[in-house]
Amino acid sequence: MRFRLTPRETSFYDMFAASADNIVTGSKLLMELLGADSSARAEIAERMRAAEHAGDDATHAIFHQLNSSFITPFDREDIYSLASSLDDIMDFMEEAVDLVVLYNVEELPKGVEQQIEVLARAAELTAEAMPNLRTMDNLTEYWIEVNRLENQADQIHRKLLAHLFNGKYDAIEVLKLKQIVDVLEEAADAFEHVANTVETIAVKES
């Protein structure tokens, strides 16, 4: 690791870790949604909104710290990118849950559970990786695995689209379900953006 002559603001590490832990909370709510009937989904959506607001607060705290810090642990643009991408994940997960409730979806198509399982695994890996930003150790396997998971998510998404367009659903239902699975795919993409940013930071710091 590169030797530094100046002190670094270390609270960023804790804030990134808190943001990632909140994403794990969001992924667990997505998993809970799968097993819930329509009457329970509104309450899950309310808890997801609370988690999304907590994510917003965490992101704003990082931006505030960034604007008030003379010295940062790594490049300012990378801090901004990492915080923004973490926030995007929560936004997409919250949107997916909200759409399920707003559209009164009776049954999610087969394959959505695989999408959510991928997101849950990516959330766990991201939460495990954030504390390692302090030392930049043990991060390579993280971004390799998240990129693999994103590729897996792409395949699941394509199969879901093929299923939705097989003629078994009416046109309105297809539009509703497609929007939900598309947003879940965007969440997987956002996890990859986080991993790519971490890789960029690690390369710069090596």
From TrEMBL:
UniProt lineage: Bacteria, Bacillati, Actinomycetota, Actinomycetes, Kitasatosporales
Leader sequence residues: none
InterPro entries associated with the record: PhoU-like_sf (IPR038078), Put_Phosphate_transp_reg (IPR018445), UPF0111_domain (IPR052912)
Pfam families in the cross-refs: PhoU_div
Source domain of life: Bacteria
Membrane-spanning segments: none
Entry's family note: Belongs to the UPF0111 family.
PANTHER family named among the record's database cross-references: UPF0111 PROTEIN YKAA
Name of the protein described by the UniProt record: Phosphate transport regulator
